[in-house]
Every structure is written in C-alpha cells, then in structure tokens.
Amino acid sequence: MARIAVDMDEVIADALGEHLSRYNAKFGAELAKSDLLGLHIFDLIPDEHVGAAIDIVHTEDFFADLPVMPHAREVLEELSKSHEIFIATAAMEVPRSFRAKYEWLLRHFPFISPMNFVFCGDKSIVDADYLIDDNARHFLRFKGKGLLFDAPHNRNVQGYTRVNDWLAVKEFFAHHVLPV
Hints:
This protein is α/β, with parallel strands linked by helices and 180 residues long. The chain is 30% helix and 14% strand. The chain has two domains: 3-14 and 67-175, HAD superfamily/HAD-like (Rossmann fold, 3-Layer(aba) Sandwich); 15-57, no CATH class. The longest helix has 13 residues, at 15-27.
C-alpha cells in the first residue's frame, strides 16, 4: 500500500477554468487555457488587471463550485481501495479558501476521510510515497516521487514524470508503484 498525496487546484479541481471564466466576465476578455501554454494568466493580462485578477481567487466563494477534473473521482476512488490517499493543498496561499475547499472535498470525494485532508503551505511536510501536483516547486524538498500533473502553465517544465490526465495516473499506478 502506497501513500499518495494529491494536490487540489489544477489536479482534481479546475481552478484555472474558473479563474479564466471570472476574469473574462469581469474584463470582457476571451482568454482560453490554450492561450496559457507555458504561461500563467498574469503573463498575458495587462498590468492594471493583475490586482483584480488576484482578488478573483481570494473571494470566499471561488473554490466552492469548481468542476472536478475529468476521471479524478473514479480513479481516486479506485486507488483508495489499495492505497492511502491524502489531499495536500497549499491552502495557506489563499487563507479564505479553507472552508470552501473542505466542503468541496467532502461533496466530491466522500470516500476520502477528512482526516486525510492536509491544508498546508510547504508540501515537503507531507509524508507520502508520491505527490501528484501541477507545480514542480512542491517536489523540490518532497522526499517521495513527484508526478507532474499536466497543466498549461507547466507545459515547458522538464525533469519530472509527467501524467497528462487521470487516466494516465491510473495507468502509472497500475505499473509503477514503488515498494514501500
């Protein structure tokens, strides 16, 4: 049985889609995920919009109704039958997100115990064999194996095992679980 830590935003929850939707509505823009290959939203928007774009994520309701990433629920439920699953979210970056993230996880992933929800900043504190994350900076001090979950902003990141979607995660764990 492996311990698998899973990031929330851009891994199981489509925060980028919601961010783009709210930004486009606020500013009459037409940004799409495909515009962000190798970039962050802040690389493309006018400097005078950056503060407002940051504020969008820092609202109480931003994380409440995010769409679940395709196949995340089914794959994690299957993996939870033979592995320990933890959700490790860097919620300290958006302190107003705690309640919404907690309730979102309860609603969409009821098979994962709330005792396995880790709200943190530095994910190196998570004692797991694997960390599935879209941000490679979380792998730098993590003691286990990092799996880089594909996202527009990390398209040019090299040096990590990349999983393109949840079906690729399922395939990875079917063949590559390290002995613990």
